[in-house]
Write a structure and sequence with these properties.
Length: 412
């Protein structure tokens, strides 16, 4: 007896893969769906890992993306602890680590990204951690039971969120960032300076403009971080936050076009027939915007979910391309940072509110139109700015700057 081939195989069981399966069902896709998850855990939320899990505010059993009966109810065959090792677009097959071969009608690559390794002597010492998965977060949390001095290598979003969480748990924290300012790729100098001051005011030490030469230990346990100028930072744990690299190996080995991720159009379609890429691994085409990139690999929940919905529309033959305004958020100390759009060098920056009071927004105008915003502890302005950015609203900078002016009147 032969088994019917599944119509859709999803490689990856995080936000993008789960949203694709859910959206496909909502749109009437009634063929079998198989979802492969490499981790032993059912799909879970990742942002709380560097925030709530480390501080103890979020319980592990509160992380589930969907209820326990969702997958069975939707006819989604969720297979955990299953790693795909090869795919053959010509034969329309996926091979798993245990030798099993699955046939597909559609294949979705939601393979995500992995932490970039720190390639210096001592990087394999005990007490050196990444933070990408639930198991990573639990290991870091356990280490905090005895650690008193932590060094976070990397001053990006993950590094700063981890630093905030470790400081909240009582550890003395030093952040080492090789760039001369924090979040240099994402923020203009004014926001970088603001965040640096905010962390220093909360007793996080920052070392900017210096790389790491080596890690040193005693009895196999990390004890020092050596900088490129010879200085050494004493610590009993290290958390790495030096970025991620997309998991493109399956696609590349199968001859699918890749460049900083798997190249995909606004529906997630790749260079291989009936193979789509979604989530952190996908370098997707973006809606046209003056001066903005034609495509980008957006590492955010919003991009993963929106990209998955677009891909689901292609599965059912009713294509609705990905056109949403990119938005992100980050919780650091008592600060809620919310970002919308993609600012570019040369944009006019307009400030609204008081940065010293930790309540403000920065708006970015390009050729007179609002293209991006960064808000701190102003969620209403963030939500409004997303709507204004979506319609490329042209706004007088004086109105944005004037807090007596009601911005809601601009939305109409």
């Amino acid at each position: 007896m032969t088994r019917a081939a599944p119509a859709l195989v999803i490689v990856g069981a995080s936000y993008a893969g789960t949203q694709l399966a859910a959206s496909a069902r909502e749109l009437g896709f009634d063929a079998p769906i198989v979802m492969l998850g490499e981790e032993p855990h059912a799909p879970y939320q990742r942002p709380p890992l560097s925030k709530g899990v480390l501080t103890g505010k979020t319980a592990v059993d509160a992380l589930a993306l969907r209820g326990a009966d969702f997958f069975d109810a939707q006819g989604i065959d969720l297979r955990l602890g299953q790693r795909a090792t090869a795919l053959d677009p010509a034969a329309r097959t996926v091979t798993l680590a245990d030798g099993t071969t699955l046939d597909y009608g559609w294949l979705a690559l939601a393979t995500g990204a992995r932490c970039r390794p720190l390639q210096v002597p001592g990087s394999t010492l005990a007490g050196v951690f990444n933070l990408r998965t639930l198991d990573d977060a639990l290991r870091v949390s356990d280490a905090l039971a005895t650690a008193t001095r932590a060094c976070v290598i990397g001053g990006g979003f993950i590094g700063l969120e981890v630093a905030s969480a470790l400081a909240a748990r009582g550890a003395a924290v030093t952040v080492v960032e090789s760039q001369p300012r924090l979040l240099a790729r994402s923020f203009p100098p004014a926001m970088s300076t603001y965040l640096a001051d905010a962390h220093r005011q909360r007793d996080v030490e920052l070392v900017l403009g210096h790389g790491v030469r080596a890690l040193h230990g005693a009895s196999g346990q990390v004890r020092q971080v050596e900088l490129d100028d010879g200085r050494r930072i004493e610590c009993d744990m290290v958390v790495l936050g030096i970025g991620v690299q997309p998991n493109v190996e399956l696609a590349r080995q199968a001859g699918i076009a890749c460049d900083n991720g798997i190249l995909a159009d606004a529906l997630g379609r790749t260079s291989a027939p009936d193979v789509i890429a979604i989530g952190d691994v996908a370098n997707m085409a973006l809606a046209a915007c003056p001066g903005a990139p034609a495509r980008a690999r957006l590492e955010s929940i919003q991009a993963a979910n929106d990209g998955a919905r677009a891909a689901a529309s292609a599965l059912v033959g009713r294509p609705q391309p990905f056109e949403g305004v990119p938005w992100f958020w980050s919780d650091q100390h008592q600060l809620k940072l919310q970002m919308a759009g993609l600012p570019m060098p040369g944009d006019e920056v307009v400030a609204r509110g008081d940065m010293r009071a930790d309540r403000f927004s920065l708006f970015y105008l390009r050729e007179g139109a609002l293209v991006a915003s960064h808000s701190v502890n102003r969620p209403a302005e963030h939500m409004l700015s997303r709507k204004l950015i979506a319609r490329r609203a042209r706004i007088d900078p004086r109105q944005l700057r004037d807090e007596s002016f009601d911005l809601k009147t601009l939305h109409g």
